[in-house]
Amino acid sequence: MNMSTNEIGVVRRNVARADRAATDRLAGFGVATVHEAMGRVGLMKPYLRPIYPGAQACGTAVTVLLHPGDNWMMHVVAEQIREGDVVVAALSADCSDGFFGDLLATSFRARGARGLVIDAGVRDVRDLTAMGFPVWSKAVSARGTVKATLGSVNIPVICAGTLVNPGDVVLADDDGVVVVPAADAAKTADAAAAREANEADKRRRLAAGEIGLDLYKMREALEKAGLKYLD
Amino acid sequence: MNMSTNEIGVVRRNVARADRAATDRLAGFGVATVHEAMGRVGLMKPYLRPIYPGAQACGTAVTVLLHPGDNWMMHVVAEQIREGDVVVAALSADCSDGFFGDLLATSFRARGARGLVIDAGVRDVRDLTAMGFPVWSKAVSARGTVKATLGSVNIPVICAGTLVNPGDVVLADDDGVVVVPAADAAKTADAAAAREANEADKRRRLAAGEIGLDLYKMREALEKAGLKYLD
Amino acid sequence: MNMSTNEIGVVRRNVARADRAATDRLAGFGVATVHEAMGRVGLMKPYLRPIYPGAQACGTAVTVLLHPGDNWMMHVVAEQIREGDVVVAALSADCSDGFFGDLLATSFRARGARGLVIDAGVRDVRDLTAMGFPVWSKAVSARGTVKATLGSVNIPVICAGTLVNPGDVVLADDDGVVVVPAADAAKTADAAAAREANEADKRRRLAAGEIGLDLYKMREALEKAGLKYLD
Amino acid sequence: MNMSTNEIGVVRRNVARADRAATDRLAGFGVATVHEAMGRVGLMKPYLRPIYPGAQACGTAVTVLLHPGDNWMMHVVAEQIREGDVVVAALSADCSDGFFGDLLATSFRARGARGLVIDAGVRDVRDLTAMGFPVWSKAVSARGTVKATLGSVNIPVICAGTLVNPGDVVLADDDGVVVVPAADAAKTADAAAAREANEADKRRRLAAGEIGLDLYKMREALEKAGLKYLD
Amino acid sequence: MNMSTNEIGVVRRNVARADRAATDRLAGFGVATVHEAMGRVGLMKPYLRPIYPGAQACGTAVTVLLHPGDNWMMHVVAEQIREGDVVVAALSADCSDGFFGDLLATSFRARGARGLVIDAGVRDVRDLTAMGFPVWSKAVSARGTVKATLGSVNIPVICAGTLVNPGDVVLADDDGVVVVPAADAAKTADAAAAREANEADKRRRLAAGEIGLDLYKMREALEKAGLKYLD
Amino acid sequence: MNMSTNEIGVVRRNVARADRAATDRLAGFGVATVHEAMGRVGLMKPYLRPIYPGAQACGTAVTVLLHPGDNWMMHVVAEQIREGDVVVAALSADCSDGFFGDLLATSFRARGARGLVIDAGVRDVRDLTAMGFPVWSKAVSARGTVKATLGSVNIPVICAGTLVNPGDVVLADDDGVVVVPAADAAKTADAAAAREANEADKRRRLAAGEIGLDLYKMREALEKAGLKYLD
User: Which pLDDT does position A4 carry in this prediction?
Assistant: First the structure.
């Protein structure tokens, strides 16, 4: 694929999705774990928040570039959704209008979407919550949009400060949204699993009152850095 | 009425409220639906948020203009509340202090208020939630206020960017707050009903997998605008 | 104690905590009540929010000064926690990264901590909610931190705009966070109790429809200030 | 006039402007002085800033309501400008795009405009500065706009939190923007003049080292309020 | 080149720069003109501002990815600067610290840099202004940084919401910053020239009092859209 | 002194100022240099900005705690100013009103003040600029204030996130504001001088094209940290 984040008015139909099995394995981890497993990269900015507590989604990205106040392309992207996708909607400029509500959610779900990540606002949040359709947005706003200008579908987009290529894995939960490049899905799932395997034992020891200073053997490094204890 | 948003130190006692039946019909719709039915106008800015999920209120506006850090006029407006009103509190300058808590809510409710919309902060949110007294505010803050300077009651005010005349209908839910001019209440309720009548069929068709592109017949307009599909 | 908010690289082990009985009496009041009882001071800025509704904590402060993107000192402060403490984490510069998650919460709880107040971000909020470990933060973010630079423990810190000395009482609920100087704990609890004793009667009278204007005898002052009633 | 802030798609051609002589008298005062002379009301929010230091403008308002990302109506309002007007541009939702640049400024000036107040962004600020065309905006942004949707001209608008009726006096300088209702222009100029007459003597006495506490006779009130001096 | 925005710890030495002649032609246009000539894309977010009025820069991008509070890589990128470059500094998370001051500016200039675009803070702005070294930043802050963690040089970065590939043309002035993909430099310069050729005549006609409604032949479209004129 | 940041209604008359000679030596350095010389602490948050480019001030702090919308205490603090002081005004809650203008500046200057640092807004900025009276504020606003509630003078305050004790040295320039504890004035001036002595030689070498990587001998540490160079 050779598309820029600047292309306007194109819809790419055939997108290579990340491996399904690797994607589904990633669904079993938290965003924080996966972000650490990738070397502490790939997170969207924390102003994106789930519309209800406990929202969770993992799938392959179909992307859409929208213009402020115009949700026309949300209908175009609906047709490109396949089972297991998460829609990632980027904006060409800051906007908090409500680009998405219960009718679009009904359609997205019918097409197989597992959720929506949008760098703008959404509405009908009570209905979306009742449907259990997970959305991460930067605002909730009843303000409606027009259908007048072209954006693009399945081009690379920048959403909440992070580059998303169509087909990448998008994982989202209460802690935020992380993007795993399609090619890295399997190895990231492995790294996340390794990371988590470590945690059960640590949690048990910490719960028993052991101190991280000892568990992680930090005392020497702290002393070397010059930490002084006073009484 | 011939009052400006600038008048200080006046309380208007007799306010013509929007028609009660029309107001109550509006209560049956969502904020997004009513905002669209009005031609996409009348919304307050989306930084106003309900203090608990699922909050809903619809009533006729009694308005109050407050100064930063001073909630004296909240006691004055309490006396002007009638059954079915929603209090709309505007500020003469930005402030996030907690102007309202459970004692005022007890009083407002006893006077017949259905809720509060305030362009500032509130406190005692756990109690307000337990009471089921709905509030839309721009902040939650324990910071208290003094009772020292005069504002006004039942003058036109600008709340979260929107002009509210006393007697207008104020409708609020999870998606935000919309103001319907008193004279437009009935026709807006009609338009909202017409809009909603359309939606059940659409929802059914979208749920069955039909695409908005076909349902709304957008394909020709998109092609004319120059949309290109790539494989 | 003679430490400044600027000291870097020190850990004070022996901190005089506020009186336990007075601290526990304060736990019975809301933040708004205590803030008023102190003369309307001591509140942290309202951008600090609980990570789940209904969070409540009251304890003696152990403080930690962190640098952006670095949570090393969170492990150092863990060792200084005693039963009944609340950890107060300040930042040397603005940062919304996730400095704290379920492993640290497990450790803090095992050490006796009743909660965390942090002028930055936290993560694993679903787990923290499930654990019932209360946190007030300015952000939720999955973004992890490094362990590379020294801060300090149990020095005076400025958290969300408020000075906190180690050993002060920290009380937090849905309305925000208030700090009571250790020496004032008992008298503040007394003042809060006196304040609350008044409220039950007021609430009953307001619920019965009495107006605050009469209850608080405000009519004369309002008239003197020039308030005019119009019909 | 009987127009609401919600009307879309209308242009009112005949607007009663504030008295020219009174308007020009107001031009001789600062925004702070006029705002005080009105009883401390009428100011736009302080996020509106001049695009260059020393910008100053005073004139009668022609208003325009714009939609985000669309400056079509700026061309419509240009035709309604008369000698001595200031254009006041409000937005139906938050937007920082650059709605105005040197070509429109050339046109506005040719039509007699004395400046622009806009609740959005502008561009070509170097050219505008070179022209000496004063603008107060909430952003500078090179981002361009389309010409696709209707707004309105010469309806009441809310700009930066303040209601502006067409024909009102708009006064702007380094300190911000104040709106004087057309009917109040003359009496406000009188009040401003009275206020300023007082200031020369005060300035002289303060410059000589006299204290405001004595000049304004505040000592008694401060003592009564409980102020304590400690050594 | 096949690098992601996520790579940490790499420095690419050989970067294909945009054509020098095309880059220098672009230097003759304003940011707004070039952004329009590209089809209204490529702009960084408007929160980036020049540190002094009249700042102007155009060159080929050398990019650097920094971590909050750590400017170590600024020294690494200095070595990769060639005559005619503009340094583009992106951050892995939001930070307003002062990453750059007069010593680095001296070094950058000596290496041939024409300016700096940084999604963070800078300091020594009085010296930078005296030197005439142009910088676009999101903050001015005296707060210093450490030199402890690796970022990368000459990888694709996201700066103020826009993807920048090393070698792209970066043009910046009072209106903001625009990025022209290296491959598009010549054609964009052509389009900007064509656009500007049109403007002189328009400016002359507008200055003579002609209305944009006539000059751009908008009246019919406005009427068709439903615009109504009222007296 | 044993005062808290919470005391309301007190004025301390006798404040031990930092040594005059040390204070004046500090005036010769930039804020960035002094902040580094102190070990990278003591800075106020960067949202405080000078009202004109090139503003510079250094003096001993007289502090005042104000309430939102009320500048009464500005007149009280005026009397406590001595030759060589800088007034530091803190707010009990966020507010951007204009607390200070040309009359107060005239008085402050007559009393010997060298400038004002205020965590709120100021007005009359054109006059203040003409007077050359330097101010660092978080906003410019024409909005006036009342004189109704007591704050305090010469108590410890938190201004823009930093604790200031009366008598501390306050140094401010284009880069921001730094606070030097009175007891540290002399040694900080020494450290700043040492720091600056180093810079002339560095600047000369960097200007000659030497790279910081060599000048600061960073290459080995970078390699050890794992930095890889690619062609």
Answer: 77
